[in-house]
Write the structure tokens for this entry.
Amino acid sequence: MNRSLAWRKTVNAVMLGLTGVFTVITVSALFVILGYLLFNGGKSLDWNFFTKLPLSPGELGGGMANAIKGSAEIIGLAALIGIPVGFLAGVYLSEYESRAFASLVRYVADLLNGVPSIVIGIVAWTLVVVPTRTFSALAGAVALAIMLIPIVTRQTEQFLREVPNSLREASLALGAHKWRMIATVVVPAGSKGILTGMILGIARIAGETAPLLFTAFNNQFWSHGLTQPTATLPVQIYIRATSPYEDWHRQAWAAGLVLIGLVLLANILARLVLARGISVPRS
Amino acid sequence: MATAVRVDTPAKKADQAGDQIARLVVLIFAASIVLIAVLIVWVLWYDSAPSRHKLGWSFLTSSQWNPVTEQFGGLPFIFGTVVTSVLALLISVPLGVGSAIFLSELAPRRISDALTFLIELLAAIPSVIYGLLAIFTLVPLMRLYVEPFLRKVLGFLPLFQGIAYGVGTLTAGVILAVMTLPFIISVSRESLLAVPGEQREAALALGSTKWETTWQVVVPYARLGIMGAIFLGLARALGETMAVTMVIGNSTAIHASLFAPGNTIAAVIANEFAEATGDVYQGVLIELGLVLFCLTIILNGLARLMIIATTRKGSKRA
């Protein structure tokens, strides 16, 4: 160990400086991405985008009204299936812990969270598209619901655990049964956090494309009902961005801006709610 | 000593029944999560049966891919998946761990929290948006500047030879690197923050510089958590679909050059599944899905265990 002090100090300064540079590079990636989207998307976004149907390639103009409606339907249906299941499973993990089974459920939920979304698409295809013999909004919603459940479960559990035990004890001491304690004390106390978790979960599935490719598929027109192929914003972005038409590229940017606007807004809102903590003062 | 007298009023009975019912309901929903996992495995196993029976293990080692003549080899896709993911990690691990060190060791807590919030927003950006940006900005950038530069400097390696298309394995690796960064940074930062302060103080008291403290004491202490973070990033990279599909070029040949177009498991499923006809063709794609599923489950499982082990160790000794 015969390194001089000056050398060690230089290494110190260089390496620490480098970590700072790395951080700046990473954070600036976000701003470059947002800047590009804002610039290109802002140029292309107009009122027609929200109100008109897509036109065939070559014709200028048109919009993505059907894809916006399709996305809203599929995400809404996925939330309708996924949120109750995820929420109740989260209540179980936090309130009814029975060592072995609870840790199994927790571990499986974490693993489900990591399953590639394209694989979830295959599963929804097998479960819904094959028996009904048609691509449908329902199949897309099932795929997204499978992705949503583990997210909501883990978030619900996490926020219910932050509710202080003294609240539980107080309500049990007043003679409440366990289910009344959960329904009237614990869940309301953790509601803000749980809501945050749900918003984050929905924001996460809102941008998913891969599981929709062969479940909801795509549609040039309005889809009538949940049993028809349905256009969605993310799939439209994929199709348009990879197409050779200039005007379609323009629309892909516009759709990208709308999608990221919604996703980031949901994220920022959710985190602001979260930042204010749970609804009861912690003792 | 008076014995407690139980008075079973109707309301109380209802409450007791309520307890039973509530317990049962939440238990069923919790069990449904396990059921979904079992269902996924069963679907992948059952649906890939035609392909597994017809092709056997040779599927994983053959590189012939021609759906028309029913020749299916999975190797190009497995190869492409591994190469793009490794490339991504080569870029994102130094960047990510470096940033995590800055965020946990140097930046004041409030600035660190704010920057971490911004970095975690990167994880919220949908994959298809990364693809959109990559097609129109990264691909031309790679074709016109980065790939010609690499060829000039490192062209003696077979990795950096050939035509610079812009779309290809290298570009997919770069976009995957950006996408895995937020996971690596936020989990590494958590692990570094869980290292007890005494460790740092002891090293500094012995005369170490800040960097020596960080690199020789803090990072080794948190190494398991950082490994977990890297595994988590790797699992993300393996399963990533849209962004890769949009820039990798979809060629089913194996090339030595990173500039050449390639393919990944997720990309080939995304591209061909909706049009796949016949049990064997579909079965092959689903079998590829099964391979991908197993890879990510193993990596995720290991990552979770490592992360749990580190954060527990930190909190116990703190």
Chain A touches chain B through 88 residues (CB under 8 Å).
